[in-house]
Structure formats: structure tokens, C-alpha cells
């Protein structure tokens, strides 16, 4: 040692602890168990707030979704899937008077009556999901009507009786 | 900023605004101010996406722009402001405790949207509150307005800088970006709005209202074409004011723990009186006379003047120095030593961490070093009454984790080791910074782990959401109990258990993030107050 080890408290003749040959383990064993998390109404409420905020922000127009990646094969269902807004338009209306001119970008016109009003939280957060899922289902139903649901299938083949039916 | 802070910023932006905003935001946090074209080329993102991201960042007060001398605009993002996203639930909850559900929703809407005009906030909040009320009842706009005014008066919300009023002929060339200004005296002044109306419920399937709806819709269309009376005046949440409130809360509860309820009420009164007269990073409040404090005590507290004086003397004499006496006029002038209080809180946090991590004997050595400032190895053993070998072991453990440091005092000019004192000491500021860094890392790890757990169970979560959607639609159309049960059984019992345990894990991690943020707030407040104090010194 370059200095007198007695000064830092290592006595004469005492062996030093073994030197470290590798980085410390990723999850070193803990000597003492950590104190349990705080509990109580306040903590529970803030937890609920946090999770709802996260969920809500994912659905706001400020959440910029990346452009859908190009799929390998063009699939039939792609035509009917609702994909996010693409590229050069945003879904909210900033005050352009307070922004630099170079940032001006096209604002997509919202269809009337489609503004989603967040339902305030209560203890039943299931109701939020229900409303949103009902909306989703309404959308789905509308799209489903585009599909040929097979009602016309039987009618066609009645005319060609001489063809073999498989 | 440290790597840990940048990483945490990145995760927060990604969770709340998506990957594109995250990419641009992280780039700007890392590199400082950049013009638009540099952002596009350095991040490899399309111009439109960059524009979108910048609009979002500026809208949410996370980023700003500045016009440079050569005429181009530079954009920047504040790391510390992004980190405040972690604290959003706390702001909203505090607004609830102070101003009820109305206050809670006002602050929530402002945080979700960044900036909003008052008229828009009032309308939206009234609608949301109406949804929760019984059928037939609605929330009046005036009630929401009043709460908004109270929030503005107490500085919890403030006006955003705006475009200055155009005076005189406009220049031939419009500037590339408006320079936004706000006058100090206007920051909390509420515009005179005549908001009359009630909240509206979302349209339910009532056939009777159809005729009314058409008429209302036409009227709304006409109204929406005129600009609202407070056009151009935007409001944002004043995070500094909330931080001041949290700090005051921490000080009051510390006094309550250390002394008693009455002392803490006195301190609370003093802080309340100093709310709007003290700037957020002042080292101490304005001096308050004992007479003033006596007059301002809350109505329920009828302690005598002399008792109050005794309490004040006790508080001022306390070694923690939360309250200091600055003069004798007016029955005694007292100040709250904000900087010292924050230092005590940070130190208490350090002590608690040492105790939980290394044990109570290490904590004893730590507290000893805090008290005595510098001690030699031998002195530590003697004062702490711990055998030499164990004391040495504990000191080295704390030294290796940077809670404790060594100070060399040479006896001779040649700094020969055999003739040098080695003293152990605790550098509170350095240890606090180290712990703060560790906290940022912890939260980042927690978020990563939470995202991992959610990703691992993605398939199951999607299945569960689909089942819930089907159940909801079936219930809405009035299905039978048997059919509902059939659908519920689509999720098997082990799957249900897996979902339960996932929910438990995610809740635990979220709660941990909230709790670590409380520590971050305390430690960061202390570090920030020392920086300001250092700058102020002549």
C-alpha cells in the first residue's frame, strides 16, 4: 500500500478483504427487508388517479401514434381496420397565433358529436371501459355492415341447377 | 442533467405522449436548443412528425421556443418540467383536498390539455360534473367559475404568456414566431366573463329530445362561430405553487411530529400568511410579528397571547431552527427558515435510508458523524460505543456507497500518509445528490418493469378486454344471466388468477413510483434551495 494502512484503521498484520474481480451482481442480496409501502385512502386514490391518467392520455389527440408499419402482404381486413391518423395532420386545434409559423400543420376536421367526454372516476372504473367499448362496438357494427354476411350465398346457386354443387 | 434523468424523461414522454414525441423530446433534452431542420435531420424523423411532436410539447408547457438573432427559431425541452409528469396525480389530489371535486377536475383538465382558455375549462368541467350527478340535476357554470377564480387568486393556476396587443401599423414582414409576454400583474387576473349556463349530459337515447336537439345544435353551431370572449387568454397549472404547498405541508407535519399539534398549527399559520409574499425559492419568509400571528390564527384555536409567545420562543430555540427570531418589535418578529427546514428534512431522509439499508447501528454512526462533522476512526469507535472491528466494517460499507466520505488533513507539507489525519465526514449535499440520482434510476427501473409485465401478458389482457366489451354490450341489450355467465367463462380460472396477479403487480409498482416521487420531491427541493442560496451570495 502506498500509505500507512494504520491511519484508516487496518491493524498491523490484518488481512485485507478479497479484491473484487467482477462487477457487483445485478440483484445483490438485501440484508434487510424493505419497509412495506404506504397504505391508506389517500394512497389508493392517487394510485387510481395515476392509472386513469395514463389510460386517458393514450386516447387524447396529443398522443402521437407512429405511422402504421407497412405490412408484408396486403390483407383483406386492412381495408376495414381503423388505423390512426397518418402523417400530415393533427387531431387537435392549437392556437397558431402563439406558435412559430414554421410549425403550422393541417388540422383534421373532427366529425360533429364525436368528442369523447371523459367520464369522471368513481369507485367503478368499469363504467369507463363500458362506455368506450360500447362506442367501439358501435363502430364495429357499422363496419360489419360492409361485409357480405353470406345471406345472398344460397340465392345465387338456385339458378344454375345443372352445375355440380360442392 | 444526468443519464438517469434523461432516461426517466424518455420513459415518461413515451408513456404519456407516444414514441414520436418521446424521440423528439429526448433529443432536445439531451442536446439543448435546436432549430427545426436540425431536429429533422438528427432524429431521422419526417418533418410532419417533428412538427406534430413540437406542437404537443409546447402545448403541454414541456418545451419552449426562442427566436435567435439570425432569425431562426430554436426549440428546447426542460428536463425538470418533464419529470413533473410523475407528480400529476399528486397535483390533482391536492386540488381535490383544497377545492373539492370541482377544483380536482379543473386541475385535471388543465394538466391533460396543457393550456386552455377559462371558458373551455368551465364548460368541460361542468359537463363532466353533470355526468356524475343524479338525473335531472346539472352543474351551474357560475359555481365552476367561482372555483376557478379561487384557484387563480391563490395562484394555483396562472395565465400563460400571450401575444402582446398589436399597437400601431403592422410591420411589413411578420416575425417567424410571436414573442409571448406576460405582465406580472396580469398573471392571475381572471378575465371578466359572463359564463351563464349549465353542464350538459352526453346525449342519451331519448327520442323526446330529438326535436330540441336539432334546434340546440343549430344554435350551438352559430355560437361556435364567434370567438369566445376570452379568446387568446390561456391558463396553465402553476406547478411552483403546488410545490410550495407540498413543502409547507412537509414542514408542518415535521413540526407536528417533533413537537405537538399546536406548534404545527402556529407554523401553518405563519406559512399561510407568507404564501403570496414569499417567492418560491426564498431562504426564509418575510418577518412576521407575534401580534400578526396571533390575529391570524384559525378561529378554532383560542390560545392566549402569552401562550403563543411561549410556543414561538420554544420553536425558535429548537436546534432544528425551523423558526428563527429576527427582531423584537411587535411582540417579536419571527421567520420560517425554509432553507434550514428543507435541509433538516433532507437529512432526516438520509438518516432513515441509512437505517433501513444498513441497520440501526450504522444509523447511529451516521447520526454521530452528522452531529460531530469530522471524526477519526478511533473517535467513531469511542463515541458510538461499537467495537472497533464492526465500526470499521460499517464505516467502509457506508463509504463504498458514498454516504460517508474521507477528508484528509495533512500534518506536514509533503502530505505523507503516515503523518495525515483521515477524518470521516458526511457531506449532506453530495449524499443527497447521489440519492436523488438513485431515485431517478429507481423510478425508471420501476416503469421498465411495469411495462415488461404488461407486455408479457399482452395476449391475456387483450382477451380480457374483448370479453369485457362483449359483456358490456350484452348487458346493454339486456341479456340473461346464463348467457352472461357463459361469456365470463371464456376466461379460465388460471387465466383469471394470472390477471389478478398482474393487476396486483402493476398496482404495487405504480404505488412505488408515487412513493419514490415523494422522496424525489424532498431531496430535489433541498438541492434546488442550496443552488439558489449559493448564487445569491455576493
Automatic annotation (TrEMBL), chain A:
Pfam families: RNA_pol_3_Rpc31 (PF11705). InterPro entries: RNA_pol_III_Rpc31. Its main location: nucleus. Keywords: Nucleus. One of its GO terms (biological process) is transcription by RNA polymerase III. The keyword Ribosomal protein does not apply. The keyword Transit peptide does not apply. Belongs to the eukaryotic RPC7 RNA polymerase subunit family. This is DNA-directed RNA polymerase III subunit RPC7-like. The gene is POLR3GL.
UniProtKB/TrEMBL annotation, chain B:
Pfam families: HTH_9 (PF08221), RNA_pol_Rpc82 (PF05645), RPC3_helical (PF20912), WHD_POLR3C (PF22536). It comes from the Eukaryota. Residues 164-174 have a biased composition (Low complexity). One of its GO terms (cellular component) is RNA polymerase III complex. The keyword Nucleus applies. Residues 7-65 form the RNA polymerase III subunit RPC82-related helix-turn-helix domain. GO terms for biological process: DNA-templated transcription. Residues 160-181, 198-232 are annotated as: Disordered. Keywords: DNA-directed RNA polymerase, Nucleus, Transcription. It is found in: Nucleus. InterPro entries: POLR3C_WHD, RNA_pol_III_RPC82-rel_HTH, RNA_pol_III_Rpc82_C, RPC3, WH-like_DNA-bd_sf. GO terms for molecular function: single-stranded DNA binding. Residues 146-345 form the RNA polymerase III Rpc82 C -terminal domain. Residues 350-426 form the DNA-directed RNA polymerase III subunit RPC3 winged-helix domain. Its main location: nucleus. Belongs to the eukaryotic RPC3/POLR3C RNA polymerase subunit family. Component of the RNA polymerase III (Pol III) complex consisting of 17 subunits. DNA-dependent RNA polymerase catalyzes the transcription of DNA into RNA using the four ribonucleoside triphosphates as substrates. Specific core component of RNA polymerase III which synthesizes small RNAs, such as 5S rRNA and tRNAs. This is DNA-directed RNA polymerase III subunit RPC3. It comes from Alligator mississippiensis.
Amino acid at each position: 500500500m502506498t500509505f500507512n494502512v494504520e491511519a484508516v484503521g487496518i491493524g498491523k498484520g490484518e488481512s485485507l478483504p478479497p479484491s473484487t474481480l467482477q462487477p457487483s451482481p445485478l440483484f445483490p442480496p438485501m440484508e434487510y427487508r424493505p419497509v412495506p409501502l404506504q397504505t391508506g385512502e389517500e394512497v389508493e386514490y392517487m394510485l387510481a388517479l395515476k392509472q386513469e391518467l395514463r389510460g386517458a392520455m393514450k386516447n387524447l389527440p396529443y398522443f402521437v401514434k407512429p405511422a402504421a408499419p407497412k405490412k408484408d402482404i396486403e390483407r383483406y381486413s386492412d381495408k376495414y381496420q381503423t388505423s390512426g391518423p397518418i402523417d400530415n395532420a393533427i387531431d387537435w386545434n392549437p392556437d397558431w397565433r402563439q406558435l412559430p409559423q414554421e410549425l403550422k400543420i393541417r388540422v383534421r376536421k373532427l366529425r360533429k358529436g364525436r368528442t369523447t367526454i371523459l367520464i369522471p372516476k368513481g369507485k367503478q372504473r368499469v363504467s369507463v371501459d363500458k362506455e368506450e367499448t360500447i362506442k367501439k362496438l358501435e363502430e364495429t357494427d357499422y363496419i360489419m355492415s360492409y361485409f357480405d354476411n353470406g345471406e345472398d350465398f344460397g340465392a345465387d346457386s338456385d339458378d344454375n341447377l345443372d352445375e355440380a354443387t360442392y | 442533467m444526468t443519464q438517469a434523468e434523461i432516461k426517466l424523461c424518455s420513459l415518461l414522454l413515451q408513456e404519456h405522449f407516444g414514441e414520436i414525441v418521446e424521440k423528439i423530446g429526448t433529443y432536445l433534452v439531451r442536446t439543448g436548443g435546436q432549430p427545426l431542420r436540425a431536429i429533422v435531420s438528427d432524429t431521422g424523423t419526417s418533418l410532419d412528425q417533428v412538427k406534430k411532436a413540437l406542437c404537443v410539447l409546447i402545448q403541454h408547457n414541456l418545451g419552449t421556443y426562442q427566436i435567435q438573432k439570425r432569425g431562426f427559431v430554436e426549440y428546447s425541452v426542460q428536463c425538470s418540467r418533464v419529470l413533473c409528469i410523475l407528480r400529476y396525480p399528486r397535483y390533482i389530489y391536492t386540488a381535490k383536498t383544497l377545492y373539492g371535486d370541482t377544483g380536482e377536475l379543473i386541475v385535471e383538465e388543465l394538466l391533460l390539455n396543457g393550456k386552455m382558455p377559462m371558458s373551455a375549462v368551465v364548460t368541460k368541467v361542468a359537463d363532466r360534473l353533470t355526468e356524475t350527478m343524479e338525473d335531472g340535476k346539472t352543474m351551474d357554470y357560475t359555481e365552476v367559475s367561482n372555483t376557478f377564480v379561487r384557484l387563480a387568486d391563490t395562484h394555483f393556476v396562472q395565465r400563460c404568456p400571450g401575444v402582446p396587443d398589436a399597437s400601431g401599423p403592422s410591420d411589413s414582414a411578420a416575425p417567424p414566431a410571436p414573442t409571448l409576454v406576460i405582465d406580472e400583474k396580469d398573471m392571475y387576473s381572471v378575465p371578466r366573463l359572463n359564463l351563464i349556463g349549465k353542464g350538459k349530459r352526453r346525449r342519451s337515447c331519448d327520442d323526446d329530445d330529438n326535436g330540441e336537439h336539432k334546434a340546440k345544435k343549430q344554435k350551438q353551431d352559430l355560437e361556435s362561430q364567434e370567438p369566445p370572449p376570452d379568446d387568446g387568454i390561456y391558463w396553465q397549472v402553476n406547478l411552483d405553487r403546488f410545490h410550495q404547498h407540498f413543502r409547507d405541508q412537509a414542514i408542518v407535519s415535521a413540526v407536528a411530529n417533533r413537537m405537538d399539534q399546536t406548534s404545527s398549527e402556529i407554523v401553518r399559520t405563519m406559512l399561510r400568511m407568507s404564501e403570496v409574499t414569499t417567492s418560491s425559492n426564498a431562504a426564509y419568509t418575510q418577518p412576521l410579528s407575534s401580534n400578526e400571528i396571533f390575529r391570524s390564527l384559525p378561529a378554532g384555536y383560542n390560545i392566549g397571547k402569552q401562550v403563543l409567545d411561549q410556543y414561538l420562543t420554544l420553536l425558535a430555540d429548537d436546534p432544528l431552527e425551523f423558526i428563527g427570531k429576527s427582531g423584537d418589535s411587535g411582540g417579536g418578529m419571527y421567520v420560517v427558515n425554509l432553507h434550514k427546514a428543507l435541509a433538516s428534512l433532507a437529512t432526516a431522509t438520509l438518516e432513515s435510508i441509512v437505517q433501513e439499508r444498513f441497520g440501526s447501528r450504522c444509523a447511529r454512526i451516521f447520526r454521530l458523524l452528522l452531529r460531530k462533522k469530522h471524526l477519526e476512526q478511533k473517535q467513531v469507535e469511542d463515541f458510538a460505543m461499537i467495537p472497533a472491528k464492526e465500526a470499521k466494517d460499517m464505516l467502509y460499507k457506508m463509504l463504498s456507497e458514498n454516504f460517508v466520505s474521507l477528508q484528509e488533513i495533512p500534518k506536514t507539507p509533503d502530505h505523507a500518509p503516515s503523518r495525515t489525519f483521515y477524518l470521516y465526514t458526511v457531506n449532506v449535499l453530495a449524499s443527497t445528490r447521489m440519492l436523488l440520482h438513485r431515485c431517478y434510476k429507481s423510478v425508471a427501473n420501476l416503469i421498465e418493469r411495469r411495462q415488461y409485465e404488461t407486455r408479457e401478458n399482452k395476449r391475456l389482457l387483450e382477451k380480457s378486454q374483448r370479453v369485457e366489451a362483449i359483456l358490456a354490450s350484452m348487458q346493454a341489450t339486456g341479456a340473461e344471466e346464463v348467457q352472461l355467465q357463459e361469456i365470463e367463462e371464456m376466461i379460465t380460472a388460471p387465466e383469471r388468477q394470472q390477471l389478478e396477479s398482474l393487476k396486483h403487480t402493476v398496482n404495487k409498482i405504480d404505488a412505488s413510483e408515487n412513493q419514490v416521487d415523494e422522496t424525489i420531491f424532498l431531496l430535489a427541493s433541498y438541492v434546488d434551495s442550496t443552488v439558489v442560496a449559493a448564487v445569491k451570495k455576493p
